[in-house]
Design goal:
heterodimer, A: alpha+beta, 2 domains, four-stranded antiparallel sheet, 10 helices, about 10% strand, B: mainly alpha, f41 fragment of flagellin, N-terminal domain, two-stranded antiparallel sheet, 6 strands
């Protein structure tokens, strides 16, 4: 036999459950534009029935939990792709700055090389002419200056990237701390059987941000997550985060350390990975090519100078200051060591009118004096390499953007808040709430009938 | 099936991409170039570096040709004058060899030939922009000075050096002949023959005057033949100028092929990008007005 009180309890459970469901809808609508928010659905379950022989009677409904809808595989793919994108973003922006130095203009290295050899060709027409000799020194000065400026630009660009490295490490540490705290909160809630949906969303969002900075591996363990870098350096273990540190090396740039171990070379992706690739590989490769060019040119010119005679009939001396022995730094330090135009060794026989050695100097422009290539060809190779690196990274960046966009679309399809859906749910919950309230009213009427009945009998 | 309830990031990405394309197109139209930074087309950027180098070299060769031309023309016209002087000397020699002349007349002729000798001396010592043209590579040394102790009446102080200059990628040109070759040839020496003529006239020996006239005449022929060197050099310079002009035109064509913007294509792209940008913007405007909440009243 059921009682009116039991029915009232059932109706009340309906009111509670629908209110809870409506609150979920309200929360979804409120968070429709919250980054990283996964839509939530109420999990309603009918309460355990009671058996009053011979009947089995329902006891209403419970709002068992509020579940966040998410696809862990998609989220892990998004994190992976964010690492690639972060790396490419920082690499592309670095290379775009670099390539400006190699964009053709009247002030680029290629033009300065051509002008230098042109000035020697002009001198060859009248080898004792002091103004033409001065023209060679001026062109050599310009050449040295352009090399110096380009090398300095690359060095200061690398210093700027180095500052970004330090900033990235700071951001990584902030995020790993947040993630450790969220791990703590999530495991605490889960231990007491509560839903941690929005904390998990926040953690996912933080891991996405971390992924765009550094290569992260995510290992789930006991409700919390362990994060390591690609090579296994721990970033977060449960509720503890492990800060990365930076320290200046003898090169003047910062290396990245974890627990005292230098992990700079093992960071492959994320913005930090891209910054390190640009700083430690791409830009040094260009610098080294510039040094090879500057050094090879200076040595070849000096050698030919030494084989000729200056205007006073003495053997020629160095036109360029001898480049550093290890080649490194040759572009930054290239300089002209003579100021007296008479000292250009244009003569091959010691007479003032001979242009034999000027011709030999001029011929260097078309000889394979730089790693088997002419100076101009070698320079055009540098331009190609810089352009190609930039163009490849940009193409990869576009591809990665598309993939990430696609993944985010899919994720939004699963987890995004649809206002249409929420509106429909709202109507549904409201109707059920109204109906339960109607049941309460009816039970109230029936109660009153019974109460009036008993008044009548007494 | 659930659809993505938030299409805005996609629409924004599409708008950004279209705007990027519009910027690139506008850059190309503004500069007229398809390669504005090396990454636009790395291979073309490298070709353009070499192209700029070769174009600038060709311009320099033209300037150097201009400089060399003046010097060679000056040497050429000097040799013309030498030939004329030698012709006068031959006339005077023929006149002096005439047996009817008296001693005083011969002495007068001899004086005239001495005048020619000093003319020839100043021709052989001619300078161009401060440099002696016929001193070999000793361009600051006076090539010939009078010296009565020398059999030819003069001594050569220059050297036998010559200069060759590069005036094209595969073109070099010798620009001078030393005086020792032009005027002091062992069998056809200009100064030796004139000195012999003067001596003959002064001695009144018609036979030796006749021999000297023959010597002068063969010296004239020799100088004449050497002058061909300068004439031919001038011709080569002219044809090299023509070659360099066509090379420059070809390089300009190559530059345009490698790095010039195809304006027709770019403008067509720009127009279609602008249309698609407009469409994307309108799509945003329209989708944002629709959802179920608007209909629940």
């Amino acid at each position: 036999m059921s009682s009116l009180n039991a029915s009232l309890a059932i109706a009340l459970s309906g009111l509670d459950a629908e209110q809870g469901a409506l609150a979920t809808t309200a929360n979804n609508v409120a968070n429709a534009n919250t980054p990283g928010y996964s839509r939530q659905v109420p999990v309603l379950q009918s309460s355990d029935p009671v058996v009053v022989s011979p009947l089995t009677l329902g006891t209403g409904v419970t709002l068992q939990s509020i579940e966040s809808i998410r696809d862990p595989l998609l989220q892990s793919q998004i994190q992976q792709e964010s690492q690639t994108q972060g790396q490419l973003n920082s690499l592309v922006s670095a290379l775009q700055v670099t390539q400006v130095n190699f964009t053709s203009s009247t002030g680029d290295i290629g033009t300065a090389i051509t002008n230098f050899f042109n000035s020697i060709n002009q001198l060859s027409t009248s080898p004792s002419d002091l103004s033409l000799r001065q023209g060679v020194i001026t062109a050599a000065d310009n050449l040295a200056t352009v090399f110096n400026t380009t090398a300095d630009n690359l060095t200061s660009q690398n210093q700027n990237i180095d500052q970004s490295v330090v900033q990235s490490v700071g951001q990584i540490n902030t995020l790993t701390q947040q993630i450790a705290t969220l791990n703590d909160q999530i495991s605490h809630l889960q231990n007491v059987g509560q839903s941690a949906g929005s904390f998990i969303d926040q953690r996912t969002q933080a891991i996405n941000q971390l992924s765009s900075l550094v290569d992260v591996s995510v290992i789930p363990s006991n409700g919390t997550l362990t994060l390591t870098t690609g090579n296994g350096t721990p970033l977060v273990i449960g509720q503890q985060s492990f800060a990365l540190t930076t320290a200046v090396t003898p090169s003047g740039l910062h290396d990245v350390y974890s627990q005292g171990t230098d992990i700079t070379n093992s960071i492959a992706s994320g913005a930090l990975g891209g910054q390190l690739t640009a700083r430690d590989q791409q830009i040094p490769a260009i610098q080294s090519q510039l040094d090879t060019l500057a050094s090879g040119l200076a040595i070849a010119v000096n050698t030919v100078q030494a084989g000729g005679f200056e205007l006073n009939g003495n053997p020629g001396t160095d036109l360029f200051a001898p480049p550093p022995a290890g080649v490194a730094g040759a572009a930054a330090s290239l300089s002209v060591s003579i100021t007296n135009p008479a000292l250009i060794a244009a003569s091959s026989d010691g007479t003032v009118g001979s242009n034999g050695n000027a011709e030999a100097l001029y011929a260097l422009g078309s000889q394979g004096i730089i790693s088997g290539q002419t100076p101009s060809d070698y320079y055009s190779d540098i331009v190609f390499n810089v352009g190609n690196a930039t163009s490849n990274a940009t193409a990869e960046q576009s591809a990665s953007n598309l993939v990430l966009q696609q993944l985010n679309d899919q994720n939004s399809t699963v987890s995004g808040v649809s206002l249409d859906e929420e509106a429909a749910n709202m109507v549904q919950y409201q109707q059920a709430y109204d109906a339960s309230a109607e049941v309460v009213t009816t039970i109230n009427d029936m109660m009153e009938t019974i109460i009036n009945m008993s008044t009548l009998t007494t | 099936m659930r659809v993505n309830p938030n299409p805005y990031p996609d629409i924004l990405a599409a708008i950004e991409q279209t705007q990027q394309q519009i910027n690139t197109d506008e850059d190309q139209i503004a500069s007229g170039k398809s390669v504005n930074v090396p990454s636009d087309n790395p291979a073309a950027a490298a070709v353009l570096v070499q192209n700029a180098d070769q174009t600038s070299q060709a311009d320099q060769f033209q300037r150097s040709i201009g400089s060399v031309q003046g010097e060679i023309q000056s040497a050429n016209s000097t040799l013309n004058s030498v030939v004329e002087s030698l012709q006068q000397a031959i006339s005077l020699g023929v006149e002096g060899a005439n047996g009817t002349l008296n001693e005083a007349d011969r002495a007068a002729v001899a004086t005239q030939v001495q005048g020619i000798q000093s003319q020839l001396l100043s021709l052989a010592n001619v300078t161009y922009q401060g440099n002696y043209l016929f001193a070999g590579t000793a361009s600051q040394t006076t090539p010939y000075v009078l010296d009565p102790s020398s059999p030819s009446g003069v001594i050569y102080q220059g050297n036998s050096g010559t200069n060759t200059i590069t005036l094209g990628n595969h073109f070099t040109l010798q620009t001078n002949l030393p005086g020792s070759q032009l005027f002091s040839d062992s069998s056809n020496g200009v100064f030796q023959s004139i000195q012999d003529l003067i001596t003959g006239l002064q001695n009144g020996n018609t036979a030796s005057i006749g021999t000297a006239v023959t010597e002068v005449s063969s010296a004239l022929n020799f100088v004449d033949s050497q002058q061909v060197f300068y004439g031919s050099a001038l011709n080569q310079l002219t044809s090299q100028q023509t070659y360099l002009s066509s090379e420059t035109a070809e390089l300009a064509q190559q530059e345009d092929t490698a790095g010039g913007a195809d304006l027709t294509a770019v403008i067509t792209n720009l127009t279609s990008s602008q249309t698609s940008l407009q469409a994307s913007l309108e799509a945003v405007g329209q989708t944002s007005q629709i959802d179920l909440f608007n209909y629940l009243k």
